[in-house]
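User: I'm putting together a teaching handout on how multi-component assemblies are represented. Below are the sequence lines for each component of a complex, exactly as they appear in our records. Could you produce the 3D structure of the whole assembly as structure tokens, so the students can see both representations side by side? Please keep the chain order the same as the input.
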Amino acid sequence: MTRRELLRLSATFPFILLMHPHPRRLFAAPVQGMPQPRWDRVLMLIELNGGNDGLNTLIPYGDERYYQARPRVAIPRERVLQLNEKVGLHYSLEPLMPLWREQELAWVQGVGYANPNRSHFRSIEIWETGSDSEQILDEGWLARLFEASPPPPDFTADGIVLGRRDAGPLSGKTVRTVALEDPQQFLTQASHVPAIEQTSSNRALAHILQVQRELTHAAGDLTRRLEQSSSLQTSFPASPIGRQLQTAAQLLSAKVPVAVIKVSIGSFDTHANQLNHHERLLKELAEGIVAFRHAVEQAGQWDSVLIMTYSEFGRRVGENASTGTDHGTAAPHLLLGGMVKGGLYGTAPSLADLQEGDLRHHIDYRSLYRTVITNWWGLPAIMLGKQDFPAIDCLA
Amino acid sequence: MALSFQEARHLLARTGFGGNPVEINQLTTMDRQAAVDSLLAGVGQQTVTSPPQEVLSAMPPPQGMKGMSFEQKKAFRQERNDEALALKGWWYQELLATPSPLTERLTLFWHNHFTSSYKKVKWPALLYRQNVLLRRHTAGSFSELLFQVAKDPAMILYLDTQTNRKDHPNENFARELFELFTLGEGHYRENDIKEAARAFTGWHVALRHGGGFVFNRHQHDGGVKRVLGETGMFGGDDVLSIVLDHPACAAYVTTKLWREFVSDQPDLHEVERLADLFRTSGYHIKPLLRALFMSPQFWAPENRGILVKSPVELIVGTIRIFQLPTRETEVLAKYGRRLGQDLFDPPNVKGWPGGTRWITSTTLLNRWQLLQRSLRGTELGMHPHQGTMIDMAHGSAWITEESLDTVQTVLTAVPPVSPLPDTADRWRAVQQLVMDPVYQLK
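Assistant: Of course. Below is the structure of the complete assembly, with chains in the same order as your input.
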């Protein structure tokens, strides 16, 4: 490794400095400002809409309290895919097990925030803007990040939103976000739309004009790139998330330059008859991810993609009377990709030390964002504010 | 002072689906008060159309669905899906036929406030009954509406009151009651939700016996509850009364109506004045609407053309203003869904977020595609042989009879982004105005 490479690496991954037994020696080399941003890397966000039940996803099967709290909703021990003697995965996530064994799958446990809000709308807003519990921010965390550190202007878009949920972290005044429910249809329709330069002091009109500008730009770019790329050889499940991940894989294999792709699956709001519904959702998610990984690997892009899930909250520890679970707090989230160092991160929230029947979080959700911002993209994380949300050392 | 043409146009765009020159000119003989009063006087409780009979009657068989085979269940579900689409199509029929567009705008507002979705409720008949309920109180008493909605079968199924039992309270309804229906965030605590949920235990639907509301006292928690600082052996109605007594309730509902009808930036001072009036009038909606429509901000020129038309407003407004012939309104329901507003199926309990959120790259393209095709006459369920764009002779003769300036004023709330070319081709001018970004505004 040359000195230059080492420098770049240590600047891109600051945790290397911290973990090195002789950090002084590494620090001695002059580090000049921030490293080059890694805009060759894509973040794939998966929104688990509705509040995914973390306890039935990464299951504390080794803790009898889990079975006591959920006589009807718990996953039986023998069906849990054990990761260690304490926790294991829901059986629907079986397709992900090869990725776990290859150490490409990281589970970050007990993710949440202080003073948790149990409203869907408020809590997803907190997650999507990157705010404190009581703080109201107008723009998504990625929108704010890209305002400070914009992706290259020749990108097709800063973010592409697939599926039916809205742009969430990608909504803001300057961020260039394109929603693509059906790429082919999008391109056909967009080819009739004139490119415009105008803007307006009327906020609603300014928004429409901005959307028009973004879509004409993105459409021109997508048309060119998709025409030149070959079609995917991988077959995807026919579920809504499967279709979204298929489109995402098409975009990546066509080397469409974009910083973020967002997909969504839901609803995880399992207040009633949770078992069948949750089983299906997790299965669709796992099958979709496996197909996505195959296709993206075929295209030689797997090392350039980081998959990360998020959801407004986990669910309450105790089940309700409707064979379901109500809104809760902390939950595990997954990171997945060619550069991910697989494993369990953080500790599972204790079932013995609850807060009003809910799990206590150990890792602030913004640590996940910090990981993406500094360790994945090599960008400054100033927009996360003054509090320290350390990056999670889960990227190689 | 009599309304100007511009003002009359604005009033119709904001309280209905817009108007053609004849409708606009009818209002220019009145002053603001008279025009507002005439619109409010037109608000009705009954619809002028009715949905297909089968939509109204289908309910679960008394013996349940246990004995059915897989195929029977599948067929059963398909029937319900067909009924749901028929129900959605029916609302468009009413939207197109109504003599009082304000009635529909208000019913749409309440549908987006007291949300329920077919996806969750699964019984189109119950959603229809909820729609009838919303109409009965659409400009009546908010408190009466709240008391009724809490016992409405579709609502009980939608927010899981059906499984809210003494030993296992389900908090879903209690939470949304505070957060979305009456107070808004910051005026209650988690514990208020937990306690209030207990008060609504036993409020159920007799699904296999006609689908009406029943109070199951065996599942009701009769114990002492503490809600918003009050303590007592409260039942659900008591909790609703406590919420209505809370000072935040009137302001919350008023702010939401402001956003619907005036602007997306409520004037706090004026909202407070209106909310006081709302509260002291005993939560009567009509006086509040009158005051809202008479507020200076409603008429302010800078507040014109600053709201985005909802998909329903875009579709219904376009058909009404050009008198486009329609055949099957189920097609319109499907179009609404493509544009992001699937009637009777809001995305979640918060309803459609609306405003600029209606416009994404996908929905904007879909809006333009719909407009282009409907002007060409290839969409909106028309017979192909009727496909000669607008029937100039019938209903939309104003396009050629009025001046180009008037046509522009009728179609757009603010000047178009692309100025009209100096053209004698009236048809081209209309098409350009409809495809201009400002046509999306009201």
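A couple of points students might notice: The two ends of chain B are 24 Å apart (CA to CA). Residues 379-389 of chain B have pLDDT under 50 and may be disordered.
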